[in-house]
């Protein structure tokens, strides 16, 4: 049986038609390589599954990169807390990058990280293209995706939550309180977690024999303003809902504001359920019934997966942590 040829920088250089130093520059994120050459080398590194030898990798550096598309929300702060806790327990630190884009890290970011080295990358709520996957792998950079926006590509490690179950539990809670006209304000249509929560909402209604009414399903963006605007539209209907399931706690706060502006009392006139269980949910008035998404645990697990992998890719598996309905004072039996 023929022995499998060991993948070396020299082998990659030979197949790419470039010098060994050029391949080394690509691996280490050096800028002085032509884009076409870089892409050719990265593709070969990915195809051959090249990994640095332990001696080359020089051991861990004690840094984990945490990458956000946006960070201006309490949701992101919970992710930061979880990652920092896990990193601190492992004797490492966290470096935060904010991209202001949902397209994932770009080449400039990758080259900066490769030049200073990192033990791995945790990518939060972003899309992971095949090109980015190839570039990370080519640099022997372990990575895990937290709460991916879309379906993660095959072979990618990711950590999320049971969004479908959460949507089901929130809607069932309202049904058990006697509500039948239940509105929902979702997140962006192209986000996996948002679609899963709506699917859970639909499943609960259908199981209970309650019709799914299209006018009660409203688009949102998980932020306060969309909760207020869409909540106001729901409450403006000729037959408004007696309860609203908001796709995030922030949207639920917007619904509470829309209800207050109309002189409606929560929960006497309108029941409201959120999703996330941010610390603010406990101090809202009334305290918010919500679905707990274990954000800190999700980030901590992703960080541990990255640190445990060394220079190798983390085990390709999708982990979903359980959600839990937390009943507080913003929901009550319907009066109708």
Automatic annotation (TrEMBL):
Gene3D superfamilies: 3.40.50.2300, lambda repressor-like DNA-binding domains
Alphabetic keyword roster: DNA-binding, Transcription, Transcription regulation
Matches recorded under InterPro entries: HTH_LacI, LacI/GalR-like_sensor, Lambda_DNA-bd_dom_sf, Peripla_BP_I
Pfam families associated with the record: LacI, Peripla_BP_3
Cell wall biogenesis/degradation as UniProt keyword: no
SMART domains with a match to the protein in the record: HTH_LACI
CDD domains according to UniProt: HTH_LacI, PBP1_CatR-like
Coiled coil: none
Keyword DNA-binding carried by entry: yes
MF terms (GO), sorted A to Z: DNA binding
Residues annotated as domain HTH lacI-type: 7-52
Protein name: LacI family DNA-binding transcriptional regulator
Organism of derivation: Planomonospora corallina
């Amino acid at each position: 049986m023929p022995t499998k040829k060991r993948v070396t920088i020299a082998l990659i250089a030979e197949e790419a038609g470039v010098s060994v130093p050029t391949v080394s520059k690509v691996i280490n994120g050096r800028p002085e390589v032509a884009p076409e050459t870089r892409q050719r080398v990265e593709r070969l590194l990915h195809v051959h599954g090249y990994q640095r030898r332990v001696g080359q990798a020089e051991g861990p550096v004690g840094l984990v990169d945490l990458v956000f598309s946006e960070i201006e929300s309490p949701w992101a702060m919970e992710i930061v807390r979880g990652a920092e806790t896990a990193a601190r327990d492992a004797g490492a630190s966290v470096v935060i990058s904010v991209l202001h884009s949902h397209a994932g890290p770009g080449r400039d970011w990758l080259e900066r990280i490769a030049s200073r080295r990192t033990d791995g990358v945790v990518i939060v709520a972003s899309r992971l293209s095949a090109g980015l996957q190839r570039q990370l792998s080519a640099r022997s950079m372990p990575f895990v995706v937290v709460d991916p926006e879309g379906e993660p590509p095959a072979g990618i490690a990711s950590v999320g939550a049971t969004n479908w179950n959460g949507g089901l539990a929130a809607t069932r809670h309202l049904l058990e309180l006697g509500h039948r006209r239940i509105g929902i304000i979702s997140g962006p249509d192209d986000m996996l977690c948002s679609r899963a929560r709506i699917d859970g909402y639909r499943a609960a209604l259908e199981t209970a024999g309650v019709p799914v009414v299209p006018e009660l399903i409203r688009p949102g963006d998980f932020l306060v303003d969309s909760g207020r605007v869409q909540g106001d539209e729901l409450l403006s209907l000729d037959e408004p809902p007696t309860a609203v399931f908001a796709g995030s706690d922030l949207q639920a706060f917007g619904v509470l504001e829309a209800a207050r502006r109309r002189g409606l009392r929560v929960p006497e006139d309108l029941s409201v359920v959120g999703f996330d269980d941010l610390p603010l949910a406990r101090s809202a008035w009334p305290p918010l019934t919500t679905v707990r998404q274990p954000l800190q645990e999700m980030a901590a697990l992703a960080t541990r997966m990255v640190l445990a992998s060394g220079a190798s890719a983390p085990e390709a598996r999708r982990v979903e942590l359980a959600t839990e309905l937390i009943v507080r004072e913003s929901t009550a039996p319907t009066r109708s």
